[in-house]
From TrEMBL, chains A, B:
Keyword Magnesium: no
Localization (cell): Cytoplasm
Record function comment: Catalyzes the NADPH-dependent reduction of L-glutamate 5-phosphate into L-glutamate 5-semialdehyde and phosphate. The product spontaneously undergoes cyclization to form 1-pyrroline-5-carboxylate.
InterPro entries for the chain: Ald_DH/histidinol_DH, Ald_DH_C, Ald_DH_N, Aldehyde_DH_dom, G-glutamylP_reductase_CS, Glu-5-SA_DH, GPR_dom
Gene: proA
Originating species: Microcella daejeonensis
Lineage, top ranks: Bacteria, Bacillati, Actinomycetota, Actinomycetes, Micrococcales
Catalytic activity: L-glutamate 5-semialdehyde + phosphate + NADP(+) = L-glutamyl 5-phosphate + NADPH + H(+)
Gene3D superfamilies the UniProt entry points to: Aldehyde Dehydrogenase, Chain A, domain 1 (3.40.605.10), Aldehyde Dehydrogenase, Chain A, domain 2 (3.40.309.10)
Name the UniProt record assigns to this protein: Gamma-glutamyl phosphate reductase
Family: Belongs to the gamma-glutamyl phosphate reductase family.
Amino acid sequence: MPARTLPETLEAAQTASRALATLTSVQKDTALAAVADALEAESSSIIAANARDLEAGEAAGLAAGLLDRLRLDEPRVAALARAVRDVVALPDPVGVVVRGSTLPNGVGLSQVRVPFGVVGAIYEARPNVTVDIAALALKSGNASVLRGGSAALHSNERLVAVIRTALESAGLPADAVQTIDAFGREGAAELMRARGLVDVLIPRGSADLIQTVVRESTVPVIETGAGVVHILLDASADEAMAVDIVRNAKVQRPSVCNAVETVLVHRDAAERLLPPLLAALRHEGVLVRGDDRARAVDAGLEPATDDDFATEHMALELSIGIVDDLDAALAHIRRFSTKHTESIITGDMAAAERFLAEVDSAVVMVNASTRFSDGGEFGFGAEVGISTQKLHARGPMGLPELTSTKWIVRGAGQVRG
Amino acid sequence: MPARTLPETLEAAQTASRALATLTSVQKDTALAAVADALEAESSSIIAANARDLEAGEAAGLAAGLLDRLRLDEPRVAALARAVRDVVALPDPVGVVVRGSTLPNGVGLSQVRVPFGVVGAIYEARPNVTVDIAALALKSGNASVLRGGSAALHSNERLVAVIRTALESAGLPADAVQTIDAFGREGAAELMRARGLVDVLIPRGSADLIQTVVRESTVPVIETGAGVVHILLDASADEAMAVDIVRNAKVQRPSVCNAVETVLVHRDAAERLLPPLLAALRHEGVLVRGDDRARAVDAGLEPATDDDFATEHMALELSIGIVDDLDAALAHIRRFSTKHTESIITGDMAAAERFLAEVDSAVVMVNASTRFSDGGEFGFGAEVGISTQKLHARGPMGLPELTSTKWIVRGAGQVRG
């Protein structure tokens, strides 16, 4: 049994958040450095706890992609510690003056970054998210309440215990970081209804999980999304670049949300690009499906249905469609995209600019791998997630996205006329 | 019967939003100038439509404060046109580059402001909101779908008709601004569930309305709040300043959310400040309630209950509480504030700085009237509302708060290593 009820846990988070809001950057950085050191020092115990989750996951028949995201080994624990140190190196967003002015009547206005207060996160089978969100929340002056899912229960409990001990050793309240995994599904449901106690809720994981949080939550949500990610190979696409980028975007880490799921090929480039592209993908063991027109070019393709075009596979699977022109590609993307990341490979300036302007996604690219759509790659240190909604944050989220603002008004007795 | 179903209305808004997103600033400003001219030219027909709503409101026994907010007369219609012209004069937020960098591998990143797409608004009995939101949405490249409530049905229908005609005359799609009042309550409910079709929903009005939208909506909401607004008269508060500011904050326009509802008085200043303050408030016809300690100073006060301290009166009513010190004032505010606006009147620098740092509200003030907590006063032109949540926007919202951003990534074939 947890020592506290869930309302007591949220109350403790609020109390901790008030202490965090007044810490200096040096105090927060010292505590984060202690967390990084502790993660390295406790690497063996963390990997041991993770092994219990992996064993249970294998027994339960978790998909290979999920098991990969769940797995912690020495290099990955070292990477977690490095990610925390990256956060130390980032500037503190709290106290930054965003805008300011003096009104004609002499009243002074300034809009200043302040912590949210309490940040909730609901995610699945990704212990690295536990460390990323705890560290980013702490640096931005927020307490975090983490629900990491039963598949990573032991990993997350161990990670949070290591973090809390390190925080206390640095003189910070341990309740700055709490896990509510022990409260099970009902705990997650209560967290979603805790408007007023939790300032923002970030779901990460499957489309199902995210949609549940969006539907059930009264706490403001940042939707971090499933990625049905598209690459368009335009008529003028360079062959080597097209093959390199699609291979990288699919194969380098297929289990993450910025991996490509659909390649659209301009009809004028299909005969030229499909053979080398398919050869490269098959060499990497990718299961490639195609629409009727793609199968007319290569009869070895499995048929791609609308369901395939709408699916985030998280595996070495990919669908190919042939399109008549840019308009047809934009229409396909509008229909199937989750508005995460899309890229066009082209040598045609006008096509590139239209694609960048008209695709309504968080990240739009020209001649680059969709795998760059990532907070770490963008220089944000660790990342909280990739927002696929348009409110507050869009695309990879870093420290400033974990703050709110407050207007400070200084007068000398002014009243409104 | 409306000519369109609600889904058709939202579809039309989406189509219009795509056209709006590619307009130049000049095109938008020309259309807004036409809207302002049309509002003035149609002043009589707008006031006539408003008269029907006022008559129905009086018959239905609407409170004086609500009737005041509903009323349009020549000066108020002229003010609506002026507010639209103020929006014309504001810089276009769309296309502004918020951040940018070049990664070590040569990939170029820029984060650019883009319209949300479709903005929904649900509000009550405030025809000025119809014009404010339509104008601000248009300038920021968004289509708006407005649900203004049955009490202002005729006013809003007339205003939207005038706006749509003016937009068409300027070559813009009329569907950039639509009202869904004709769909009644079920229309509002459908709007709240239209995630994916509506990008953001802004409720304005009573606490009940706002809480319903927050609870029922799957579309991301910006909570614009009820204002249980506090002024703290510190021990060192100047008497004339204290009386001036409280009087202004309560009396100048009691029916709006930045009007003060509770005055907290430091016990060391109660004997000095209460008599002149009460004399001034009573002279203005304010019904003043007090806690037991305030009533010990002035036996003529009505008793103030916890319910009074938690109520936004929207009328010439005010509650007074005596507090032992700043900590007690902060605790009272933490308990009863809706996190909208609070002000301290003080000559004590340390008390001012603690108040500004520790009060967790959208707008915190020292020695100024809470009536300044307003988009117009802040120089935003018209205002969309005052956000009392911490996500995306906090405090008075203007044009930039009606945009999202998009990451533009330009490469030359880079893949992730």
